[in-house]
Amino acid sequence: MPTPRPSGNIPQYLLTVFAVTAAVMGLRLLITWAAEIFLHPIPILGGWLKSLEIVELSVIVLFALLGFGLGGASRHLSAKTAVGIKSIALLVALPLVFFSSYWLRHHLWLSQLTAESDLPREQITALANQALSSDGGGGGFWGYYTTTTRMPILPATVAELQRMADDQKWFRSELTRFSGIQPGVFSMIFDGAGWGIRLFYMGLAFLTGIIYFFKGLAWADTARLRWVAQRPVAQGKT
């Protein structure tokens, strides 16, 4: 693809931003789907890997591609375009791509519950939201996201879903009975560990994306300067 002129080509820039974001999001969703279908169902090992969210290490490669691609797309913008304007696409794409993985996991969980029962999807969704809310995380996607920070493996059947809150209370009471430590301490430990893992991967993804975004900007500036240097030669030949 020839390097655009310094005057800029906004439609080409927007098309490139969309293509890069869609491609990286597609890869992230594919990796998440493969992990949920093939890796996490493995007895013992799958649950351990899901608890540590090992699959999220893929953000190193994916967000490097995203950052560099969005930074490189700025070669279609004018050389005078401010970095803040160029960064808008990155600020939108980073959370969109990052949380798409958890959106898919939420969708697959509801699909699994629906497949294991004779209830319609709407009723399953309502029961799931009720269970998530009873655990203190609220309903919907955000309830799923916050609940899975402290309980990575959610119920796989409606019967398990309906007693989810009671099972969690029983589990923590048993820990208290054997250890003598108050249940609130275990809640703090589980919450802290879960959010620590989430924030680590989120920080890793965003930091990688930002670093490679500036690498992409540098590449775009070099490509633009190369076009300017070659322009007189091309004009002389004509």
Structure description:
This protein has 238 residues and is mostly helical. It contains 10 helices and no strands. Helix 1 packs parallel to helix 5, helix 3 packs antiparallel against helix 5 and helix 3 runs parallel beside helix 10. The longest helix has 55 residues.
Structure described in brief:
By secondary structure, the chain is an all-alpha fold. The protein has ten helices and no strands. The radius of gyration is 23 Å and the shape is elongated.
Strand content: under 5%
Order of helices and strands: HHHHHHHHHH
Quickly count the helices.
10
Shape assignment: elongated
Helix percent band: over 70%
In terms of per-residue confidence, which ranges show pLDDT below 50 for 5 or more consecutive residues?
none
Radius of gyration: 23 Å
CA distance, first residue to last residue: 21 Å
Strand tally: 0
The residue-averaged pLDDT reads 86
Biggest sheet architecture? none
Protein structure class = mainly alpha
